[in-house]
Amino acid sequence: MFDLDRWQEIYHVLSKNKVRTFLTAFGVFWGIFMLVIMLGSGKGLQHGVTQNFGDMATNSVFIWTQQTSLPYKGFPRGRGYNFENEDAVALAHSIPEIKYLAPRIQAGGFMQTNNVIRGLKSGIFNIMGDYPAFNKIDPLNFISGRFIDDLDIREKRKVAVVGTRVVELLFNKEEKPINQYIQIQGVYFKIIGVFRSKRTGEQADQENQNIYMPFTTLQRTYNYGNAIGFFSITSQDDIPVSVVEEKAIRLLKQRHSIAPADESAVGHFNLQKEFDQMQGLFFGIRLLVWIVGTGTLLAGVIGVSNIMLVVVKERTKEIGIQRALGAVPRVIITQIMTESIVLTTFAGYFGLVVGVGLLELINYLLGSTGANTEMFVHPGIDFSVAVTALTILVVAGAVAGLIPAYRAISIKPIDALRYE
Amino acid sequence: MIRIKQIHKSYVTGQNSLHVLKGIDLDIAAGEMVSIMGASGSGKSTLLNILGILDDYDSGEYHLNGLLVNRLSERKAAQLRNRMVGFVFQSFNLVSFKNAMENVALPLYYQNVPRKKRNLIAMEYLERMGLAEWAHHLPNELSGGQKQRVAIARALIGNPKVILADEPTGALDSKTSLEVMDLLQEINATGITLIIVTHEHDIALRTKKTIRITDGNITEIIMNN
């Protein structure tokens, strides 16, 4: 219920000493402002770093071959070997925890000579042989066309998916690359898809120079026999990828006569572990921000509580009159707590709005100036965080008003009346 | 209306105990107009505060309108003050940020009477005080006499059984004092019990009965004609 008299009194109390009210409000304003800015910047940092992962499934592991470091079953140490097509079949059959299995083989690109030619134009690009599953593990952003499909694999079609940088270098601006042919290491391929990387910065530039073709096509066309470069594997959604990682390595060691204790023969990289570490780091940052932010906020709220104590002292006589005329303690307590809540909430809300506004401005400037912001993307705070902060403010305001309110009614009405 | 039996009251400050009221017996009938006189420190204000449920007493009994008033919770006390007692103070004690009408309406605010209704009633009382045109003025825009009349209207609006006036003319010049006393007499004529604390003889003389307090005891009750 709207009570005009109550608001009249609040206005009177808060406007009586405007400078004091402003300074008190500023403490709360600054607390919430800092909290918003710090949380938002943390978020920006997190966005920036996680965007470097693109849309890559974080529950993935990559496994490749290295030299053995232990002699085993008559083989000497220092032996090199290759994964083979049969390994892929074995992995898929004996490890049910695998969701996607994408063997890959790479051809050229690192040889520093022009390996891709179209008419008079040429360039050096990374050539990958992939299975359709790869686009599930590390999805690309398709501008036109499609990724490799099962039919391409089965029929070993000479088709290629190219990045935007490849298109830029091999085609004129007005040309449409789809269904055009390019010569890759001496063999003609039809372009069936053009993509742009979902990553940012240098990693994106790198990926945009990739050319993907069906795994089977690459193996056969360039005489790789049945060799596999490396495996990308993701686990089923509810299973940690480390389980798959361990099982896959054990199986591969067994199939290639590698000592079970050999730590270096099978190279592997667990993205989940990396990702979890990063998440841990960001959790730490967030925790720190909350501690510092709420600390600042607390200082502001204590300021409010202090001022409310002063206000109560100044108004002792007035409160005495009200009580003599029949104001029950609840009326006085509610009044003082409302004043405190109004002050904190108003100042805090203002801090929230200004903080979010500043973040939006930074966001806008980052976007419009095209600054290279690989590490800082889309600063901002979640709506739920904003609501939490406001709830904290209201509660803090109430708590700040509590002590002064009880101080006000702890004085006997007669003493309050006599107070000068 | 008011029955007091053997009321004792001491103020304790540290080691010292000051025995202010030393066994007061007093009966005031409904509709009486009584003045309490005494030197400062005699205990007359303390007595008035106890009568107004603003202060506790140590021992004895105080019946107000047949109800025993003793160690009430602050909530109960506030409600009882609101319904039974009207206060008129020497220094008026108007709320500075409320205009005359809002000040008068204040006791009804604590009874949760809707704003429109209580302001309407407050206007009636201000009209009775001849202050209708000052209704929207703040206290600091009113003269002393006007302020005291606003305070009297405020004391009346809750339909109290008793009005307690603590030196109601203490801050007024003699002409306004007379006007205020006329007003109080008129109010008493409507049947409301009126108790005035004063140290001025001519004020006391205008009440029907003067109670003199010396050193915490009632030493004299004078009937005035």
Give a written overview of the molecule.
The complex is a heterodimer of chains A (420) and B (225). Chain A has two domains: 193 residues, no CATH class; 174 residues, no CATH class. Chain A has 14 helices and 14 strands. In chain A, strand 9 and strand 10 form a beta hairpin. In chain A, helix 10 crosses helix 12, helix 10 packs parallel to helix 13 and helix 12 packs antiparallel against helix 13. In chain B, 34% of the residues lie in helices and 29% in strands. Chain B is built from seven helices and ten strands. In chain B, a hairpin with a 2-residue loop joins strand 9 and strand 10. In chain B, helix 3 runs parallel beside helix 5, helix 4 crosses helix 5 and helix 5 packs parallel to helix 6. The two termini of chain B are 22 Å apart. Classes of the chains: A alpha+beta (420), B alpha/beta (225).
